[in-house]
Each structure stands twice: as structure tokens, then as C-alpha cells.
């Protein structure tokens, strides 16, 4: 049990917790095609040209001020020391103005980068959401919903953070390094080279300590995931833990993990805590080098005292952006990798929407002709499926789990397209009908009822947004949920929270049936609509369904055979084929597959 839990927690950590370690300590995700992704990102910057130019202008202005200010400080010191002539008050005023402009540039840079990042992210998030709602059902069936949501949230948030923080720092850092190096070499190339040596020590120390921090922080996050997993398992499965007397074992597992987490946390904090003092020490060494050799050069007339003071500022100004660039490199790579994941979704093909309108008629006969279908090539799911559902009749599909019942519904709704054969509605091939028109004429009530965090009224209108209040009330009455709605705090204006968690499962099912009634479909599909409710609620739902299905072509999928005894036709499926069909009594008399299924459910009861 412990090994299993550790394996599960390992997966949990990799997906959720290591992201924190990546952001804080530089664990990097890399894009597979960086060049292509950067071009796609650049296209979004193209829509924000004015803001990009404004930000670059502010960055350039701030960099110039940052490089110029220490030079003015040098002049002021030399004027005080008498090493050069000039107006000290004027120089001091100019230096004050430059520093104020430098501070204002930093403020404007933050504002511009924030507006730029939010503009880009708003456009990207809007395009991604628009793409998701237009994707084929097959895409969302074959991709983790959590992964798709992660692209919408985490990946785009990484891009936003990078644009607002990392990119301005990168531009400013590169320009600052170039300007600072140029000025230092201009003032005294010998002292500049000596200053660069301490910067190299800073880079080496940062790299070494960062590796240690990353190593132990990663282990700490993994152990934290295991610890959280242990606590979650204990709380959610507390009755089982107590019932099997596993309190001591669970406590031992928790303590072992907690001890390992403590050791990893201590090492992480030690190395991360040491980083600041070590870098300060190297910086102080640099100041000593500049003071000692600067004094020597000053005595010999190579430089003035003011240049020494400027070099002290330039040395710190030079090392700071190098450390920042080293830190944001991982952030940039992670953002590019996240952008690539977003663009991968954006490049997916939308669900095909071409086709004509479904011909309108009172009747709706559905016919499946020689249907062949497979989710994966070489693994047929539906084989030689031929069935006619007469207009206005109720046809039930039954069979063991995995026999293809729901797949038939998916094919009729064109969530998937068939490999071969035809699906006809009143003789019209559904492949020639636009999906929107097809689905407008079909309503479906699923096993897992989906309601939205909205009012009861808006949930009922989901199938027909133009429905009147009278139509909603009629649908509620016919679906046996009128009294239930009336007893809600605000009636039709009651907000269903958490997809309907503030009402019972049976009430949610009744609302789903009422929603189908509001849609007023020609074809109705019921997929295990009563599988999650008690017998009494099931009876109420069945009564409601009988009214909804009246004079409509209906396809019912059910495991509880008692719910489909009154069907006009019962079709028994096995391994994607029809093996039996007929009325309830006929199939029982044959004592075939249906009889076997029925007896398994009702053995010992009168048939």
C-alpha cells in the first residue's frame, strides 16, 4: 500500500507541485521548437506595437539615466576634491534630476509592461477559449481535461508573468551591461578588468548555490506531495483506516515522510540563506579591489577619486543585471514552453461545420445502415450495425458495459464520424447536414447530469434560449419538477452552485429532462438517465420521460431493464453488433442474451 501511495503521489507532485520549484529555483521546461514559438509570440506583440514601443523607450531612457548618474556622481566628488572645475550646485541638481527621471522610468516601465502583458494575455486567452469550444468532441475525449485547463491557466499565466517582469528586466539588463561596460572601460580599462573578475566569481557562486537549492527544494516538494497525499488518504479514507486498524502504520508513514521533509527543508533553507551573504561577501571583495587598486591608480594619476566612487556604483550595477538574467533565463524558457503548449491547441482543426440544414418535418425516422466504426485503427468498435428507429417510437439499446451503446449515440450526434455506412434521418444523410442543424433537432439527457452555475431558468433555457416563461413552466410541470422549483429559495431565479450541488441528484436529473422538453426536439436520447437515483425518484423520472418521449423518436440506453420494458423495440448489443431485437416478452421467450441479462438482474423474482 505504501509503494502504491508513493507512486500516485509522485505523479501528483510532477503535475502540480514541481511547478512551484520551477518558478522559484529555476527548473526549466524547454520548448521543442523555440524558433517557431517565438515567431508566434511575436505576432501577439505586433498587435500591441504602440505599447511595445512605449515600453522600449522607457527602458532605454531608464538605462541611460542609470549609466549616466554614477558619472555625474564622479564629477561631483572631483569638484569637491578640487580635481576638476565646475559648478557643484548645478552638477548636484542635474544628478538629482537624473535619479528622479530614473525612478520615474522604473514606474512607467512597470505600468507599460503590465498593460502589455495583460493585452497579450487577454487576446491569447480569448483565442484559446474560442478554440476549445470549437474543438471536436474527440479531442477533449482523448486529452486530459486537467491538461487543457492547465494551458488556459498556468501556461498563459507564465506568459503573462514573463512579459510583465522578465522581458523588461532582460531588455534593461542587456542595455545596462553594455552601457556600464562601455563607461567603465572608458574611464579606466585596467580597473574595469579587475572589477569583471569579481563578477565572474559572483556568477560561479550563484550557479553552484542555485544547483544545491534546486536539488534539495525539488526533493522537499516531492516529499511535501507525499505528505499531503498521506493526509488526504487518511482523511478521505478515515473509516477504512480505522476499520482495518491501520492507525499506527499510517502514523509511521506520516512521521517518516515528515522527518525526510524536515531534513530536505533544512538543507534548502541553509543553501538559500547562504546565497545572500556569499554574494555580499564577493561584492565587498569587489569594493576592496576597486578601493585598493583605484587608490593606487589615483596616486599615480591614472584616475581621479570621483572615478573610484563611480566604479563602486558601476560594479554593483554591472553584477545585478547578470544575476537577474541568469535567474529569468529559466522563466523565459518555461514561458516559451508554455506558449508552445498553447499554440499546439490553437493549431488543432476545428470541428467541421459545413453542410446543409436538416429538412424540417413532423416525423423523424432514424436509420443506421451497415455502420462500421473504430476509435483506434484496427480495433473495430461497431461492426455491421443496421437499425431502423421508426418515427415516434421508443427504441432501447441494452447490453453489457463496453458493447457500443453510447458509441451509437455519439455517431448519431456526430461527435465522431463513422468509418463507413450511413446514418439517415428521414432519408437524409447526416454527413451532409451541418452539425449545428443536426444537434438543434436532437436533445440528450446523460447519465451524468450537467448543470451550470447559473439560475434554474437559464439552465432550462440552455436548449432553447428563446423559450418563454410559459414554456418553462409547462416543461417543469410535464417533467414533475414544478413543485421542486417552487420550493427553492428563489424559484426559477435560484442560483445552482457548483453545477447543481445545492440540489439532489434526482432533482438535477428532473431539471435535465425539463431542459430537454424545453428544447422541443424531434429526436430524444436518454443515456442511463436514471442510473444514479433511488427507486422512488426513478419512478418520478420515468413518468416525466414518458411525457417527454410522447410522439418523439426516442433512443434509450439503460442497464436497468425494468426501465425499458415498455419500449416498442429492444435491441441487444454485444461487441458492437446487434445480436437480438424484439419486444420485451419476445426476447424473454427466446431465452437468449436478453434473457441472460434480465435473469442476472432479477434472479429470484417473477418474470
UniProtKB/TrEMBL annotation:
Quote the SMART domains the UniProt record gives: AAA (SM00382)
Q: Where does it reside?
A: Cell membrane
Q: Which Pfam families match?
A: ABC_membrane, ABC_tran
Membrane-spanning residues: 51-69, 97-116, 166-187, 193-210, 270-291, 297-315
InterPro entries from the UniProt entry: AAA+_ATPase, ABC1_TM_dom, ABC1_TM_sf, ABC_transporter-like_ATP-bd, ABC_transporter-like_CS, P-loop_NTPase, Type_1_exporter
Alphabetized UniProt keyword annotations: ATP-binding, Cell membrane, Membrane, Nucleotide-binding, Transmembrane, Transmembrane helix, Transport
Q: Does the keyword Methyltransferase apply?
A: no
Is Nucleotide-binding given among the entry's keywords?
Answer: yes
Q: Name one GO molecular function term.
A: ABC-type oligopeptide transporter activity
**Superkingdom to which the source organism belongs:** Bacteria
Q: Which SUPFAM superfamilies match?
A: ABC transporter transmembrane region (SSF90123), P-loop containing nucleoside triphosphate hydrolases (SSF52540)
Gene Ontology cellular component terms for the protein in this record = plasma membrane
Tell me how this protein sits in the membrane: Multi-pass membrane protein
- List the protein's name: ABC transporter ATP-binding protein
Q: Which residues form the ABC transmembrane type-1 domain?
A: 55-334
Q: Start and end of every ABC transporter domain?
A: 366-600
Amino acid at each position: 500500500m505504501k509503494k502504491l501511495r508513493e507512486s500516485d503521489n509522485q505523479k501528483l507532485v510532477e503535475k502540480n507541485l514541481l511547478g512551484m520549484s520551477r518558478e522559484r529555483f529555476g527548473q526549466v521546461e524547454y520548448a521543442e521548437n523555440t524558433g517557431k514559438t517565438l515567431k508566434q509570440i511575436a505576432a501577439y506583440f505586433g498587435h500591441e506595437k504602440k505599447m511595445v514601443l512605449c515600453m522600449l523607450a522607457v527602458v532605454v531612457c531608464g538605462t541611460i539615466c542609470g549609466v549616466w548618474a554614477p558619472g555625474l556622481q564622479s564629477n561631483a566628488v572631483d569638484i569637491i576634491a578640487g580635481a576638476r572645475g565646475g559648478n557643484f550646485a548645478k552638477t548636484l541638481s542635474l544628478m538629482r534630476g537624473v535619479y528622479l527621471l530614473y525612478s520615474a522610468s522604473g514606474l512607467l516601465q512597470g505600468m507599460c509592461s503590465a498593460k502589455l502583458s495583460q493585452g497579450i494575455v487577454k487576446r491569447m486567452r480569448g483565442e484559446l477559449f474560442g478554440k476549445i469550444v470549437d474543438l471536436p468532441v474527440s479531442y477533449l475525449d482523448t486529452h486530459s481535461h486537467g491538461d487543457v485547463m492547465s494551458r488556459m491557466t498556468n501556461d498563459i499565466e507564465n506568459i503573462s508573468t514573463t512579459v510583465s517582469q522578465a522581458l523588461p528586466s532582460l531588455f534593461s539588463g542587456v542595455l545596462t551591461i553594455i552601457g556600464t561596460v562601455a563607461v567603465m572601460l572608458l574611464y579606466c580599462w585596467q580597473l574595469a578588468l579587475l572589477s569583471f573578475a569579481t563578477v565572474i566569481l559572483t556568477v560561479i557562486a550563484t550557479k553552484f548555490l542555485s544547483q544545491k537549492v534546486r536539488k534539495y527544494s525539488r526533493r522537499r516538494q516531492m516529499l511535501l506531495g507525499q505528505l499531503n497525499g498521506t493526509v488526504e488518504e487518511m482523511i478521505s479514507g478515515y473509516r477504512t483506516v480505522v476499520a482495518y486498524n491501520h492507525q499506527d502504520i499510517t502514523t509511521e508513514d506520516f512521521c517518516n515522510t515528515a522527518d525526510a521533509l524536515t531534513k530536505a527543508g533544512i538543507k534548502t533553507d541553509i543553501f538559500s540563506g547562504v546565497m545572500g551573504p556569499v554574494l555580499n561577501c564577493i561584492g565587498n571583495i569587489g569594493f576592496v579591489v576597486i578601493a585598493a587598486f583605484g587608490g593606487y591608480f589615483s596616486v599615480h594619476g591614472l584616475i581621479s577619486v570621483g572615478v573610484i566612487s563611480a566604479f563602486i556604483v558601476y560594479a554593483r550595477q554591472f553584477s545585478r543585471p547578470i544575476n537577474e538574467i541568469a535567474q529569468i533565463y529559466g522563466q523565459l524558457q518555461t514561458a516559451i514552453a508554455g506558449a508552445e503548449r498553447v499554440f499546439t491547441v490553437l493549431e488543432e482543426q476545428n470541428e467541421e461545420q459545413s453542410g446543409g440544414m436538416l429538412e424540417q418535418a413532423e416525423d423523424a425516422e432514424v436509420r443506421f445502415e451497415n455502420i462500421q466504426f473504430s476509435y483506434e485503427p484496427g480495433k473495430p468498435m461497431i461492426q455491421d450495425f443496421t437499425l431502423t428507429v421508426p418515427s415516434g417510437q421508443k427504441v432501447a439499446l441494452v447490453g453489457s458495459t463496453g458493447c457500443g451503446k453510447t458509441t451509437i449515440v455519439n455517431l448519431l450526434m456526430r461527435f465522431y464520424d463513422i468509418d463507413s455506412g450511413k446514418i439517415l434521418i428521414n432519408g437524409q444523410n447526416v454527413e451532409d447536414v451541418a452539425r449545428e442543424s443536426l444537434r438543434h433537432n436532437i436533445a440528450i439527457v446523460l447519465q451524468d447530469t450537467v448543470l451550470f452555475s447559473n439560475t434554474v431558468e437559464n439552465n432550462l433555457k440552455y436548449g432553447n434560449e428563446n423559450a418563454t416563461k410559459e414554456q418553462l413552466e409547462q416543461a417543469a410541470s410535464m417533467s414533475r419538477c414544478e413543485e421542486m422549483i417552487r420550493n427553492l429559495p428563489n424559484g426559477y431565479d435560484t442560483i445552482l452552485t457548483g453545477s447543481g450541488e445545492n440540489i439532489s441528484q434526482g432533482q438535477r436529473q428532473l431539471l435535465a429532462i425539463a431542459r430537454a422538453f424545453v428544447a422541443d426536439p424531434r429526436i430524444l436520447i436518454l443515456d442511463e438517465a436514471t442510473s444514479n437515483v433511488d427507486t422512488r425518484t426513478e419512478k418520478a423520472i420515468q413518468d416525466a420521460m414518458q411525457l417527454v418521449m410522447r410522439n418523439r423518436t426516442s433512443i434509450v440506453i439503460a442497464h436497468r431493464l425494468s426501465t425499458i420494458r415498455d419500449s416498442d423495440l429492444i435491441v441487444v448489443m454485444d461487441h458492437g453488433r446487434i445480436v437480438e431485437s424484439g419486444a420485451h416478452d419476445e426476447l424473454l421467450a427466446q431465452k437468449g442474451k436478453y434473457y441472460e441479462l434480465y435473469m442476472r438482474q432479477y434472479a429470484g423474482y417473477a418474470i
